[in-house]
Amino acid sequence: MTVHLMTTTAPTNVTDLENVAVLKAQNVNVYYGTKQALRDVWLYVPEHKITALIGPSGCGKSTLLRCFNRMNDLIPNARVEGEITYRGQNLYDPDIDPVEVRRRIGMVFQKPNPFPKSIYENVAWGARINGYRGDMDELVERALRRAALWDEVKDRLHDNALALSGGQQQRLCIARAIAVEPEVILMDEPASALDPIATLKIEDLMRELKERYTILIVTHNMQQAARVSDYTAMMMLTEDGRAGTVVEFGETEQVFTRPRDPRTEDYITGRFG
Question: Is the pTM above the cut of 0.70?
Fold first, then answer.
């Protein structure tokens, strides 16, 4: 994968986050073959905060999210240009192992996707293939507790995970992600397939998890972004409609109450999108 290091100056409204950002996207462009999906994207993700990516469908939110753990590598003809760093290290350096990137930067997908195995094996799986040599029972319990699921499943750890409710399955997927001890958790619309009660449980869980992890979430739910995130990035298609980009980024309260870009206000208030 070809990477060009850029020296373009970042937009002024994100420079104050540069020193506390654990993840940085600087002048990032993404292509799927000849089609450009992202153009000139800047984003700084601060540590132990929840950062939300919002914007209309098709503006590149999930594409940007996948850049941070190199999931786009798995898409044929995908190409990333620009600089994406984790704690100052270029994630696309030829010497960087993408499997190790995905261990440190975990991901939870839109629809719960537990393995057709027991609850226990779902949590233990990642640690086992990574060569974990500690007390597996303790690790499974710790991950399930952090995912706020232990009390609901502790007496049926060897039941098939597919028998759990949708909300429980999503929390199990979160437990599976954190069992390998990542530092960052990426979430791609983690509650969009859940009912309101399960959604609130996931939101409560995110607030608890940010004490230990940095969280970057894609959501179409404006109320959810306002409730759970500390920072918000507004994404839109560029004027020619051919690629997505970040048009505004800042503290969530500012973005929702005093947006700098009129397109942000129009989207948040439902005038379009």
Answer: yes
